[in-house]
Amino acid sequence: MHAQVRLPRLISDNMVLQRETQLNLWGWATAGENITISFAGQQYETITPADGHWHVAVPPMEAGGPYDMKIDASNHLTIRNILIGDVWLCSGQSNMELPMTRLKDKYPAVIAAATNPNIRAFNVATRMNWQQPLDDLETGSWAMADPESVLQFSGVGYFFAKALYEKYHIPIGIIRAAAGGSTAEAWLSDEALQQFPAIYNALKLRDPKYLDSIRKADQKASNDWYSQLWWQDKGMQAPVKWSDNSYNPHDWKSMNIPGYWHDQGLKNIHGVVWFRKTIQVPASMAGQPARLFLGNIVDRDSVYLNGQLIGSTQYQYPPRKYPIPAGMLQQGTNTIVVRVINYSGNGGFYKDKPYQLFTPTDTIDLKGPWQYQLGAATDPIPPAMTFYTQPLGLYNGMIAPLLPYTIKGVIWYQGEANADRPAEYSQLFPALIKDWRIKWGSMHPMQHFPFLYVQLTSYMPGHPQPTSSNWALLREAQLKTLSVPNTAMAVTIDIGEWNDIHPLNKEDVGKRLALAARKLAYNDSLVVSSGPLYKDMSIQGNKIIIRFTNTGKGLLAKGGPLKHFAIAGPDQQFRWAHAQIVNNTVVVWHPSVSKPIAVRYAWDDTPEGANLFNKEGLPASPFRTDDFAR
């Protein structure tokens, strides 16, 4: 039942509406309710139909504002400070979701200068539903960019919007609908999933009773595991807790941090391991506010300074950056204690991350030997269902409510959660693009809106010899998706971090997506929007000649001779190859391969040293010329 006029969350103060196309306003009211909308000097009238769901079409408008909108019925609503500009949906998984607050140490000047009322963001809260598409969001509001609000903007989305605004000076609205760990199929509609019977028929979560039973069973298993661990942990049950400053660790052993305890004497251990380090604080740091950086920890941690808890993180990916209030640091001896819970995989501390305690004037390096003691050992935590990976749920909960809202296009950063199924992704991802275009196109003339996406960056250690890689195959699936009309891809292979699935350089990601938007969505035919993309090859004697599109002003070997090319003969065994730029092609060879048949470039999880670019500074996409099984 609907009574007075109610509006969706998206239609609210500070919103950005899409310019130069028909706009769709909608809401709910009692059947028969007369509704008048006054907007930008025009009036629009409608009568609420029997289903209580009304729509009003607004003719295309030019960029501008701000405007107010008045809605008059049995109640009266005013929506203030509306801009007309370009609206982009920012979707995918955690690298799109990751907010600017996680980047504040990398981009302090950018955040300090973020005041721009013409850049606005709406964050869609994570919500799943497997029974039906939802018609509205539970929470959310539009925010104008300033140094405080921007901390909650998508990092990729903000840098994308910033680059577009600086180029075109048109208001930009970004709608973030992204969920960490989500698979592509989680964002597909019921209709689209039907072309994947193995996925569609296995979806049992449509049954609310089954869903509830899974949630309850998983919660109980988790609660039981942590409860048992608590009572087994000798560090928490001892007469003097191991976090206490007065505790004497006389029998603790030594382990180097950073590193994993599997490599340092604690093999196949899950549970709790305590770490302790005594440091000497100079008078210049004593009493000062400080920060403690402890890299990344697998999986959970609680950190104590001189016996007082200063911070805790519940899963492995966020960087550990803990503030230390003024007065806590003492001149002379201070003790840092870290209680680490590992529930699966190898527990410990990420390598090549900052481990230090510092004030503006002094830094204490915390790398090296720490004392450690096993608090409790147990089996890995029982596996639980990851709901973000389940088909359909995120589409119904986070995309369906957006469909009436007119958008310019989509930017997408996802694929990590599908990397173990790259062949399937080559079908899922194009299906998702088609699905969304159909769904939005049912309400707007936008069946072919631009869809811009990020190719997976580098992650995990590289290999000393040429190898196959699921991440390389997933990148290939993304590369091939460029065959879908009106798509573009931002290559990021050069700005990843081998030890962090969430690399911090989100500025270049946003800028490269903006270059793609300039080419595809803003019809800038002169912009070079991509790095080199593999076109074709030819064999000349013992050499293979590789040709590319998107070479711009020419190919470039950045920082020295070309690296990370591999070549194979009829035995299909790849060897690191010599590679040289000749007349805007790349010539590849190896002295021991007399009859080459295939070349691969940057074909690894982290292809360290891969350095083929165009002279505009954009990296070449990883590629292979073969279709070998692996």
UniProtKB/TrEMBL annotation:
Signal peptide (residue range): none
GO molecular function: hydrolase activity, hydrolyzing O-glycosyl compounds; sialate O-acetylesterase activity
Protein keywords: Hydrolase
Keyword flag Translocase: no
GO annotation terms (biological process): carbohydrate metabolic process
Annotated protein name in UniProt: Sialate O-acetylesterase
PANTHER family according to UniProt: SIALATE O-ACETYLESTERASE
Ranges of residues in domain Sialate O-acetylesterase: 86-232, 406-515
One Pfam family it belongs to: SASA
Gene3D superfamilies in the record: Galactose-binding domain-like, SGNH hydrolase
Residues passing through the membrane, by range: none
InterPro entries named among the record's database cross-references: Galactose-bd-like_sf, SASA, SGNH_hydro_sf, SIAE
Keyword hit for Hydrolase: yes
